[in-house]
Amino acid sequence: MHNATKLRALIQRPGIVKAVGAHDALSAKLIQQAGFDAIWASGFGISASLKCIPDASFITMTEQLDVERNMVEAVSIPIIADCDTGYGNALNVMRTVNDHERAGVAGLCIEDNVFPKRCSFYAGVRRELIPIEEHCGKIQAAKAAQTVPDFLVIARTEALIAGWGQDEALKRAEAYAAAGADAILIHSKAPTFDELKAVAGAWSGRVPLVVVPTIFDGVAAAELEEAGFKIVIYANQAIRAGIKAMREVLDVMNRDTRPGSVNDRIVKLKEVYDLVGVPQMEEDERRFLPVGGEQVTAIIAAAGFEKQLLPLIEDKPKCLLDVKGKTILERQISRLNECTIKEIALVRGYRKEAITLPNIRYYDNDQYEQTGELHSLFCAESEMKGRCLLLYGDIIFDAAVLEKLLKSPADITLVVDLAWNDLQGDGSPQVHLKPDLVALQDPPGKSSTLRYVTPEEPIRLRKIGQHLPHDMARAEFIGLAMFSENGIEQFRRAYREAADHYLSKGFHEAGSFIRASLTDMIQELIDTGHDVHCVTIFKGWMEVDSFEEYQKAWAQLRQ
Ligand code: SPV
Ligand code: MG
Question: 288 exposed, middle or buried (CB, 10 Å; 0-12, 13-18, 19+)?
C-alpha cells in the first residue's frame, strides 16, 4: 500500500491525526514506536541535524529527499514532506511532486513564502508572501503532476505569520482549496490559540485543516480537534529533546570523565540494537548465511605434558613448538581466523605462563598432571554455548579440513581420516603410537578399495577408542570436533551425568573419569543413545605427538 493511501485512511477515520516532526530515520522510528500516526519530515529539523544550518531554503530538495527516503525505509507510518516553497516555481513543484511520490512519501506541504523562505519563527527577518495566484498555480501544478491518486498536497499559508491578518489567511486558504489543495495548513506564531481558533471557526470546511501548535503550546489535541483541525503536527519537539539530552550528558561526562557517570541518562546499547533491527539481522544470518559464517567458539585443549617430547618442551608447552617460524598454536589460530572463527578459548596447564598470545580467552587446568584432556576441556565449560569446535592443541590441519567440518549439519561431528585404513597392511610405518580409531556405520570405499570419493554427508560413528580391534577400525579421529548449540548441550549434560556415575570408576578406556579423554566421552555419548557423526577426510593434517612427528612436520610444512 502506498504511503499516501495510509494517510488518506487516517484522515477519513474519526479523530485528529497526530504527526510528529522527524529529522532522520532514527527519530522517525522513535515517533512510530511512541504510537503517533504520521511523520512530518521537518525542514527545520533536517536543516539543523543534517547540516546544522538555519531553516532558510539552504537545504536542497535532493538533501531533503535523501533523508525522507531513509525515513520511508525505517517506518511504516505515512510521511508528510515539508517542501518549503516547493523548490522553485510551479514547474519545479511538478517535479517535486513526482520525486516525492517515487520516494514513497504520503504527501507534501508547500507554503506561500517567497523563495528563499525563512523559518516562520525567526524574529527580525523580513517576511514576504508570494501573490495568491502564484501559489494557486503551484497547487494546481502539483495536482496536475501527481500520478499516485491518494497523494496529498497540503497548501500552507503564512498570512498570520506575516501579520497580514485573519481575513487574508482565510482568503488564501479558500483560494488554495479551490486550486485543488487536499488540506490547508494555516500557520500561526501567536502566543495563544485564540487567533487561529477564530480563523478555524470561520473556515468553510471544504478541505481538512492542519495545525502546528509550536508557540501556542498549551493546547491539547482534543481542543484542536474541537476547533476543527484534522491533523496536528508536533513539528520540532523531538529534535529539541535530543539537543537537551545530549547537552546534559556531555556536560556530566565532561566533568566526571567516566563514561559510566551518565549511565542513568542514556539508553542501554541493547536498546539501540533493538531499534536498528539487530535481532532481525541475527535471524537472517541464521537463515541465509553459509554455515561457518556464524559465530563459532573454538576451545583448544593445550594443557598436557608429554615427557617423550623432552627436551623440546623443556620451557614451553607443545602447542608452542615452532614449525618453520610459526608455532603450532599460531598455525591453528590462522586456520580458525581464515574460517572467520575469532572466538577462541584455550585451556593451559603445563608451562602455562609461556602462552601469551592476544585475543584468546585463557582457562587454566593446574591439575594437568593428574587429569585427562576431557577434564581440561571442561575447564572452559563456560565457553560451551552456541556452536563450538573442540580441538587438540597439537594438530596442524589444512583449511579444507575445517571448511568441511563447518558445513556439517549434524549436532556432533568429528573429523576422521580414512588414510589410516589405507595404510593398514601396506607396510607403511605407523608413526602414531596411539591413534584414536573409529568404526563407522557405513564406511566409504568398503568394497572398491582403490578409488573413491570421500562423502560430503556426515557418516554415523559407532565406536571410538585406541583399543579398537584393527579389523573394525576404518579411520582415525584427528582431534577436531564440532558441536551445534544443541550438540554441546547434550555433551555437557552427558558429561555431568557421567561424572556423577563414574566418579570413582573406570570410564571406557580411561582408568578413571578424571583422566578420561575426549574420545571416552564420545563413546559415552554413543552408548547413551546420542547421534555422533563424522566427516571423512583423506590426509591433510598432522599431529605432533613424538619427536619423529615433529621432524616430519618440519620436513613437510612450508615456511
Ligand atoms: C518545519 O518543521 O520545518 C516547519 C514547521 O515548517 S515550523 O517550523 O513550525 O514552521
Ligand atoms: Mg519547514
Answer: exposed
Question: Which ligand is closest to the CA of 85, given by its number?
Answer: 2
Q: Where are the domains of the chain?
A: 3-236, 244-284, 289-556
Helix axes 399-406 and 328-338, enclosed angle (nearest 10): 50
pLDDT in tens, 73-122: 999 999 999 999 999 999 999 999 999 999 999 999 999 999 988 877 88
Distance CA 485, CA 294 (A): 12
Lowest mean pLDDT among 125-129, 141-145, 160-164, 269-273: 125-129
Q: Are 69 and 39 in contact (CB under 8 A)?
A: no
Taking the centre of ligand 1 as the mean of its atom positions, its distance from the CA of residue 51, in whole angstroms, is 16
Atom from ligand 1 closest to the CA of residue 233: 5
Q: Is 426 a catalytic residue?
A: no
**Measured from the CB, is residue 193 less than 6 Å from ligand 1?**
no
Alpha-carbon distance 453 to 457, whole Å?
A: 12
Cell of 536: 571423512
| Residue with CA at minimum distance from ligand 1 atom 5 | 235
Place of cell 582431534: 479
The three grid cell numbers given for residue 372, joined into one nine-digit string: 585427562
Would you say the CB of residue 43 lies under 6 angstroms from ligand 1?
A: yes
Q: Which CATH class is domain 3-236?
A: alpha beta
Instruction: For 306-322, write each residue's pLDDT tens digit.
Output: 877 778 778 889 899 88
Average pLDDT over residues 433-448: 78
- Using a 6 Å cutoff on CB, does residue 49 contact ligand 1? no
Three-class secondary structure of residue 472 per DSSP: coil
Nearest ligand to residue 235 Cα: 1
- 279-310 pLDDT per residue, tens: 999 888 767 876 554 689 999 999 988 877 77
Candidates 3.20.20.70, 3.40.50.1000, 1.20.1290.10, 3.90.550.10; CATH matching 289-556:
3.90.550.10
Count Cα atoms within 13 angstroms, Cβ side, for 45.
Answer: 27
Q: Is the CB of 42 within 6 Å of ligand 1?
A: yes
Q: What is the pTM of this model?
A: 0.62
- Of the pLDDT bands very low, low, confident and very high (cuts 50, 70, 90), residue 426 is low
In ligand 1, which atom is closest to the CA atom of 55? 3
CB distance 150 to 110 below 8 Å: no
**Bridge pairing between strands 475-483 and 387-392:** antiparallel
